[in-house]
């Protein structure tokens, strides 16, 4: 029997928010006011909608996870990814270049973080 699509849990949303809040000062983004929720955002794991002038943002985490995406669904990396979008929103770079840059850096930071945590144990 094929595995079923599942809903994102409240615990995952809480982890997403906690991780964003942990990294906000690291990225120097403490002047932003952010709210968090789950949403239907297509095939993306996360999305950041923001008003740069007023420093207000809504961070979304996907509301459903399809079985094929389960292995790559990483709440912590998604949090870092969306924070990088916020961080780069003040720079004048194209959306495509920004996405490439964000993906590379988020992957690297999440990798380093996991490695660091594994080393602590
Ligand atoms: Zn992105």
CATH C-level: Alpha Beta
Average pLDDT level: 94
User: If helices are DSSP runs of H or I spanning 4 or more residues, what is the number of helices?
Assistant: 3
| Record field, number of beta strands | 5
Biggest β-sheet strands, sense, barrel: 3 strands, mixed
**SSE order, as H and E?**
EHEEEEHH
Oligomer: single chain
**Cofactors, ions and other ligands in the entry:** zinc ion
The assigned CATH architecture is 2-Layer Sandwich
Low-pLDDT parts are none
Give the tally of structural domains. 1
CATH topology: Zincin-like
Strand order of the largest sheet: 2-4-3
> What is the structural class?
alpha+beta
- Note the overall shape: globular
- The helical percent reads 40-55%
Percentage of residues in strands: 15-25%
Determine the N-to-C terminus distance: 38 Å
Compute the CA-based radius of gyration: 15 Å
Outline:
The chain is α+β, with helices and mostly antiparallel strands. The chain has helices at 10-23, 75-88, 95-120, and strands at 6-7, 33-39, 46-51, 56-62, 64-65.
């Amino acid at each position: 029997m094929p595995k079923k699509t599942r809903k994102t849990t409240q615990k995952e949303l809480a982890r997403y928010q906690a991780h964003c809040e942990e990294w906000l000062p690291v990225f120097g983004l403490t002047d932003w006011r952010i709210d968090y929720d789950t949403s239907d955002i297509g095939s993306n794991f996360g999305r950041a909608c923001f008003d740069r002038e007023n420093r207000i943002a809504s961070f979304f985490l996907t509301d459903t996870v399809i079985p094929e995406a389960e292995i790559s669904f990483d709440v912590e990396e998604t949090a870092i990814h969306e924070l990088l979008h916020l961080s780069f929103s003040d720079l004048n770079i194209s959306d495509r270049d920004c996405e490439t840059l964000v993906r590379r850096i988020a992957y690297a930071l999440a990798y380093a973080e996991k490695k660091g945590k594994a080393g602590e144990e």
